[in-house]
Design a protein that fits this description.
The protein has 308 residues and is α/β, with parallel strands linked by helices. 41% of the residues lie in helices and 23% in strands. 30% of the residues are buried.
């Protein structure tokens, strides 16, 4: 069996995108060339690697195994190249990061600090819901993962690098916006707008409500902080979001933090990776820079008058 590195990269791109044209674009070849090379790979293996059903591409078990093997080979080679570059005093290469959606409010700035220090490193950033990040982790698609609620059923290297307080918000014209030390029990008839089940914010919120034996009257479950803020601004109920979703302000876009006893809810941001994964020198450098940048970021936002 003779399959080149280039063809392994093509097949891995095809396996991850489930698209010949997208894989061709990633590899800077034409679609006919990509199709021909995928056929050559299939012939070399001697077994079907994928099939098309209702215009959707599905990998066969052999195809999935080849994709996993290709990923391991290419990751090992990339780590070797980075080790050589590091020994020569050169830091270059690629870093793949997947983060949950709430982290979009601060991670680009922290990544920016890293890129200023290491301008020759290409960083790929995926922003997904928690389930999407966990799925990518299980498929070993990235170097580093950022989330507030790491899965407990996966053996991980897990480090906390920053606080993540959850706050309650209401419409600016809501009577709740002017009240102090609101007992949670008095809100049993108010409607709540929460993140979707399975999100880190929702998991932390549910744990908090359970602790106080409070059953929120849920009007909506939404998949983004922006949607929650808009619904709250429209007077549809009380929302629970990360303080970072307010960009460090008490008020934003027609909503205001409200003073409910027990809030803000304490949580943290974690940087994780599967424990068996061998991190590249670039990934190690990013983790070190992440801790340093996070401290500076929090300090800067506080000194600028932020409540984060």
């Amino acid at each position: 069996m003779n399959i080149t590195f280039k063809k392994l990269k093509l097949f891995l791109a095809f396996a991850e995108t489930k698209s010949v044209s997208a894989a061709a674009k990633q590899m800077f070849v034409t679609q006919p060339t990509a199709s021909m090379q995928l056929m050559e790979i299939t012939n070399a293996v001697g077994l079907p690697l994928y099939e098309m059903i209702s215009k959707k591409i599905y990998l066969t078990d052999t195809g999935k195994e080849l994709a996993d093997t290709a990923r391991q080979i290419l990751n090992t080679w990339a780590a070797f190249e980075q080790n050589v570059d590091s020994t020569n005093g050169i830091t270059r290469g690629k870093l793949k990061i997947a983060v949950v959606s709430t982290a979009k409010y601060f991670m680009p700035r922290l990544i920016g600090q890293f890129c200023k220090k290491y301008p020759d490193i290409d960083v790929s950033l995926e922003i997904l819901n928690r389930d999407g990040v966990v799925s990518r982790m299980l498929d070993n698609l990235d170097d580093i993962y950022i989330m507030s609620q790491p899965p407990k059923d996966i053996d991980l290297n897990d480090d906390i690098f920053m606080d993540n307080q959850l706050v309650a918000i209401a419409a600016l014209n809501s009577p709740l916006a002017k009240q102090k030390s609101i007992p949670l029990s008095t809100l049993k008839d108010d409607r709540f707008i929460l993140r979707e089940k399975g999100s880190g914010t929702r998991m932390t919120s549910d744990k908090f409500f359970k602790q106080f034996k409070f059953h929120p009257n849920i009007r909506m479950e939404l998949g983004s902080n922006e949607a929650i803020k808009e619904a709250v601004a429209g007077g549809l109920g009380i929302g629970v979001v990360s303080k970072y979703a307010l960009h460090g302000r008490q008020k934003e876009h027609g909503v205001s933090m409200i003073d409910i006893k027990g809030f803000p809810i304490s949580s943290h941001w974690h940087v994780v990776n599967p424990s068996k994964k061998q991190l590249s020198p670039i990934a190690h450098a990013f983790k070190a820079e992440l801790f340093s940048s996070a401290v500076k970021f929090v300090s800067t936002t506080r000194s600028a008058g932020s409540s984060i």
